[in-house]
Specification:
Elements lengths: L1 H20 L15 H8 L5 H25 L4 H22 L7 H11 L3 H4 L10 H4 L7 H13 L1 E5 L5 E5 L10 H20 L18 H10 L2 H4 L9 H11 L11 H40 L22 H29 L3 H6 L2 H48 L5 H20 L3 H22 L8 H15 L4
Antiparallel strand pairs: 1-2
Helix pairs in contact: 3-13, 3-14, 4-5, 4-13, 5-9, 8-9, 10-12, 13-14, 13-16, 14-16, 17-18, 17-19
Length: 497
């Protein structure tokens, strides 16, 4: 017995050894249609290049790392912080600008007075039509420091009219009283409408000369964002949405933002605040740039290593063998996907952290202030560039699924066809079970000792189950009768299976 077990173990070891070196496609294995072995082959194929295994891991890790830098180092600001930063830099800029034009001293109010007298604006003559000193910088479109503001400044010079909105938010056109500060010649109109307009905007950045340092009257000029919103609010669509007093709701909200009645701590949302927010976004852009450098740098180094290995480069002179386009980190399909993953990871983590902080502090305005808009824009650009590749991948994946399903359908069809050859009638099943009975009895007749008794007991149990299932006389025990029944079935059904 020990020798027998030893032989069996040796045989099993030989079988395991032989299986370990036989390729999978040479083994006689019936595939399970519910399990696609191609998936496993792709996942565990040792021939997949090392850099393809780490591309997406590096991209995701880069996104996580730079998102952590953005959250921990850049941090968050409030409107008050943004306004304080903008106010400090705007005040310094106004004083420096005035000094370059001949102003002497460091007093901000006097510097503003100097610039206002030296570079008057026609819109100031009509300020009462736009709400006076408190609101005319917002409602008079020529006081907007944008391309549209410049266009309205020139339009005022050539038409003698000012353009903006009234207290209800409706677009109005009013004449410049006595034609003050309107050029007499075309050259003067161009000079007043452009150069004078630009320096007047600089003087108004810090507020009018009579309201420097005051919060109850006067203010600076609206920034590009608020200027655009105010201009859009005068369109007919927004004018159709009014409160019970007939005031444009959107325009009213913009005026409240500009005045500081709807912002935390009463901060005025003017150019100074917008400049502070812009600076904050510039700081937020640094982690985005770092993320870009890491991914593109990794891609270039990894592909350079591959090229050196594939071209068997062993000296500086042999570097000429390298195909440069394969290592340049631009316009590469794999690189595009890596940038999508890295920027998407960065966007997800930073946005989630900002939203979580805002919800926890119940200061929902801070969410919009501190979102990393540079990161959001970079992710949008990555999606746009990767879109065509994503479409191609989806089409290829759908085609692959269809091909796999076709293979499965074919396999099932083949099995169905094959099984028809083994489908038995009820009479044929009875004959088959009776043949089994004859085989069992023959085996028992050739057995001896305790083995024979065990087989007889098994035969008894088996016959009992057959009888319980199909009836007393189901099995044909007479051998000649059994074979005659088999011949008759073949002749009647013309089926030799």
């Amino acid at each position: 017995m020990d020798n027998l077990h030893a032989d069996q173990n040796e045989s099993n070891d030989a079988l395991e050894s032989s299986l370990s070196i036989v390729p999978l496609n040479q083994l006689n294995i019936i595939p399970d249609p519910l399990c696609d072995y191609e998936d496993f082959k792709c996942q565990f194929d040792p021939q997949v290049p090392f850099y393809e295994k780490t591309d997406y891991i590096v991209a995701a890790c880069s996104g996580v790392l730079t998102a952590a830098l953005d959250i921990l180092l850049v941090g968050q600001i409030t409107l008050k912080d943004a306004n304080a930063w903008g106010t400090e830099h705007v005040n310094n800029f106004v004083i420096k600008s005035a000094k370059k034009l001949g102003f002497k001293g460091d007093d901000l109010q006097k510097a503003v007075e100097f610039l206002e007298k030296k570079f008057p604006l026609a819109g100031d003559a009509a300020m009462n039509s736009f709400g006076g000193g408190l609101y005319h910088h917002l409602r008079d479109f020529s006081h907007h420091p944008t391309i549209i503001g410049l266009a309205f400044s020139l339009l005022t010079q050539f038409t003698g009219m000012c353009y903006g909105t009234d207290t209800t938010g409706c677009f109005i056109v009013v004449p410049v009283p006595e034609g003050r500060y309107i050029g007499e010649t075309t050259a003067e109109k161009l000079l007043f409408g452009t150069v004078y307009w630009m320096f007047h905007m600089i003087s108004d950045m810090a507020g009018s000369s009579g309201s420097i340092g005051k919060r109850t009257s006067g203010t600076g000029i609206p920034g590009p964002m608020l200027s655009f919103m105010k201009e859009v609010s005068s369109l007919p669509f927004f004018n159709s949405i009014k409160d019970e007093n007939g005031v444009n709701e959107f325009s009213k909200w913009i005026s409240q933002l500009f005045k500081g009645t709807t912002t935390p701590d009463g901060v005025k949302f003017d150019l100074r605040t917008e400049l502070g927010l812009l600076y904050n976004q510039m700081i937020h852009s640094l982690p985005v740039i770092v993320n870009e450098i890491i991914v593109r740098g990794y891609f270039m180094i990894s592909r350079l290593c591959v090229e050196i290995q594939n071209k068997n480069v062993k000296s500086i002179k042999q570097l000429s063998k390298i195909i440069i386009r394969r290592i340049i980190p631009i316009k590469q399909r794999k690189l595009t996907r890596m940038l999508t993953i890295s920027s998407g990871t960065f966007f997800t983590i930073t946005t989630a952290a900002t939203v979580a902080r805002g919800v926890a502090s119940e200061n929902y305005a801070d969410i919009f202030i501190n979102l990393n808009y540079i990161g959001i824009a970079r992710f949008a650009i990555a999606i746009k560039e990767d879109y065509k590749y994503i479409v191609e991948d989806v089409k290829a994946f759908k085609l692959e699924l269809q091909e796999r399903q076709a293979r499965r359908d074919k396999w099932y069809a083949e099995q169905t066809i094959g099984l028809t050859y083994f489908t038995l009638t009820g009479e044929q099943v009875r004959i088959l079970e009776s043949l089994k009975k004859q085989k069992i009895e023959y085996d028992i007749s050739k057995s001896r000792g305790s083995g024979k008794a065990i087989k007889q007991e098994w035969d008894k149990d088996w016959c009992t189950k057959i009888t319980d299932s199909y009836g007393e006389n189901y099995l044909i025990t007479d051998e000649p009768v059994l074979y005659n029944t088999l011949r008759n079935d073949v002749r009647v059904n013309d089926d030799k299976s």
